[in-house]
Design goal:
Family: Belongs to the OXA1/ALB3/YidC family. Type 1 subfamily.
Number of strands: 20
InterPro entries: Membr_insert_YidC (IPR019998), Membr_insert_YidC_N (IPR028053), YidC/ALB3/OXA1/COX18 (IPR001708), YidC/Oxa/ALB_C (IPR028055), YidC_ALB_C (IPR047196), YidC_periplasmic_sf (IPR038221)
Shape: elongated
Keywords: Cell membrane, Chaperone, Membrane, Protein transport, Transmembrane, Transmembrane helix, Transport
Mean pLDDT: 80
GO cellular component, one term: plasma membrane
CATH architecture of the largest domain: Distorted Sandwich
Oligomer: single chain
Low-confidence stretches: 1-26, 32-65, 67-82, 599-606
GO molecular function: membrane insertase activity
Helix content: 25-40%
Number of domains: 2
CATH topology of the largest domain: Beta-galactosidase, Chain A, domain 5
């Protein structure tokens, strides 16, 4: 291996050579400067007219630019021979262009060639998107955009260049109103900088971007940004649900706020990537996944004066919440990407694919741990809604009825199994009494367990039979819990006195009904084999827990739970009147009397 020596340890000859080399370089540098100044004076271009240029006076914060993944544009320019300035293309005044279809109304400003308003209109399944004040929903978080940048702005690793790209007055191909399908191009050039941004629109939520930035004729690594947040993040739930979503090498990942940092970059192949919150997303689908580069930003804003329906601890000081952003770039400097900005609705996401054979955006939806169950719960709920039950509250009630009808055979099977267990209870007690003198670690105890299992098998008793309804209902309940706050279709869905099924009942009527119905479930359901004192404790503990749980959660869950309880009460009341139910209650009553010291001991009914 070659030896690398420290220049500070070289002899005097090396020092003299180094000094001579420096003098030569200084002489060449000043000579070139003199020659360039003299030549420029002879060939000085005419001063641009007012129609060709304008003065850039506004300064935009650039502290959140992505970290440079290559030498900065200014350094790269200095390393290359100076070139003639490109013709100036620059507007003289600020203008706007509005692009509209049935789904959105996008307002572009020629200042920065960026979006200043993005109104989402018609909801999937009917209705109109509105904010919490009843106004048309602007998907841009204006507070964050004013501080950190507007959508479809450009960022590089050079703060000065970022300010130029953001504040420059581009020349648009059209102003006023455009009806999609349409194409809108913004051009800007001055000095050694040239920028072209072309956007193509159709009748869907997806538009296409073609962006190039060059300096001294060389491509500059720029990122087309969605800098931060969404317009409906005006409550604690909205801020908490923000995440970065990616599909790389066929694997979808959802990065929580804790895992996101500003300036972090991810290289391709990227099928799609972007940022989202509970209901809406801004996702880039690059034309060339292999050369795509994703960058992320994480900033904070103070929402102490703007947040609504907050579960934050409201104090007199600032309330800083994170705002996540994402941008797409390319290793070759030429950005070509489709961009989806819209609701995270299953039907919408499923129809958008990264390529003909690529993954769709459907996996953008994340319903939590029981996501698979939650997904199909909502698909069923959506089917009921589209079949004619146009109110989501009534659709939830009908879904609950269908689930409980399907659960009825399991409840009957559980009662039958419980009765069989009660019939052999005296024999089981006799076996336990026989082995009572042995310690728990004694091998004889295994013989006791074997005898009990044989007795149960001979009498057709399934020791897990009583768990089947719980094993079904609990995952369904947790899946509904995870699904409810994540489906945009239920956003602002009302039912009777409840204005939004995804928010708590403002009058807390449903949680109170929930407590009463849960108590009645415990009261009417016979529990053979359960100690009466334990049954009494559960009759009060379970309603208290469920009531507290639904007091602060979305009213849709309380509606689903309470209706399920009332259906269970009705079913149980009917079953209690059958021969099976009567026998169960008789057996349970006799067992209670026997434990109290009265009545005869039941020997079991074979």
């Amino acid at each position: 291996m070659a030896e690398f020596k420290n220049p500070n340890q070289q002899g005097g000859q090396d020092n003299n050579s180094f000094l001579l080399m420096m003098l030569v370089l200084i002489a060449v540098f000043f000579g070139l400067q003199y020659y360039h100044t003299k030549d420029a004076g002879k060939n000085k271009p005419a001063t641009p007219t007012a129609a060709q240029s304008t003065t850039i006076s506004q300064n935009t914060p650039a502290s959140n630019a992505p970290a440079a993944t290559q030498p900065s544009s200014s350094a790269a320019a200095a390393a290359k021979p100076a070139q003639s300035a490109v013709p100036t293309v620059q507007a003289t005044a600020a203008t706007t262009t509005v692009v509209e279809n049935e789904l959105y109304r996008i307002t572009f400003s020629n200042k920065g060639g960026q979006v200043v308003s993005w109104i989402l209109k018609n909801k999937p399944g009917g209705g109109v998107f509105k904010d919490d004040d009843g106004k048309p929903l602007d998907i841009i978080h204006q507070q964050a955009a004013a501080k950190y940048g507007y959508p479809l702005s450009l960022q590089t690793g050079d703060a000065a260049l970022n300010a130029t790209l953001t504040n420059a007055l581009y020349v648009p191909s059209a102003t006023g109103n455009l009806a999609a399908p349409a194409t809108l191009t913004f051009k800007y050039s001055a000095g050694d900088l040239t920028v072209t941004k072309t956007f193509t629109f159709d009748e869907t939520y997806v538009l296409h971007a073609d962006v190039q930035v060059t300096q001294n004729g060389q491509p500059v690594r720029a990122y087309l940004m969605w800098p931060g947040g969404f317009g409906d993040q005006d409550n604690s739930t909205g801020y908490a649900s923000a995440q970065i979503d990616t599909n790389i090498d066929g694997k979808t990942e959802h990065l929580s706020q804790k895992k996101v940092t500003t300036g972090n970059t991810t290289n391709g192949p990227i099928a799609w990537a972007g940022t989202s919150e509970a209901f809406f997303a801004a996702v880039f689908l690059p034309d060339a996944p292999a050369t795509a580069v994703l960058t992320t930003t994480k900033n904070e804003i103070d929402v102490s004066k703007t947040i609504h329906k907050s579960s934050f601890s409201m104090s007199k000081g600032a309330i800083n919440v994170p705002m996540l952003g994402a941008g797409i770039g390319s290793t070759n400097g030429h950005i070509q990407s489709r961009i989806f900005v819209g609701p995270k609705a299953i039907k919408v996401l499923k129809a958008i694919k990264a390529s003909d054979n690529g993954p769709s955006l459907e996996s953008l939806l994340d319903f939590g741990f029981f996501g698979v169950i939650g997904k199909y719960l909502f698909i069923t709920l959506q089917f009921i809604h589209s079949a004619g039950v146009t109110n989501w509250g009534w659709a939830i009630i009908l879904l609950t009825v269908l689930i409980n009808i399907l659960m009825l055979p399991f409840r009957i099977k559980t009662m039958q199994n419980g009765l069989k267990m009660q019939r052999i209870q005296p024999q089981m007690n006799a076996i336990k009494e026989k082995y009572k003198k042995y310690k728990a670690t004694d091998p004889k105890k295994s013989e006791m367990n074997a005898e009990i299992m044989k007795l149960q098998k001979d009498n057709g008793v399934n020791m897990f039979g009583g768990c089947i309804p719980t094993l079904i209902t609990l995952p369904l309940l947790y899946a509904f819990y995870g699904m409810l706050p994540r489906v945009v279709e239920l956003r602002h869905a009302h039912w009777l006195w409840i204005p939004d099924l995804q928010n708590p009942d403002p009058w807390h009527i449903l949680p109170i009904v929930m407590v009463i119905s849960q108590f009645l479930v415990q009261y009417y359901t016979p529990s053979p084999g359960v100690d009466p004192s334990q049954q009494k404790m559960m009759a009060f503990t379970m309603p208290a827990i469920s009531g507290w749980f639904t007091w602060y959660y979305g009213a849709g869950l309380a509606l689903y739970w309470a209706v399920g309880n009332f259906i269970g009460i009705i079913q149980q009341a009917v079953m209690n009147r059958t021969s099976l139910g009567k026998e169960m209650r008789e057996v349970a009553a006799k067992r209670a009397r026997r434990k109290a010291g009265t009545g005869k001991v039941i020997q079991g009914k074979q």
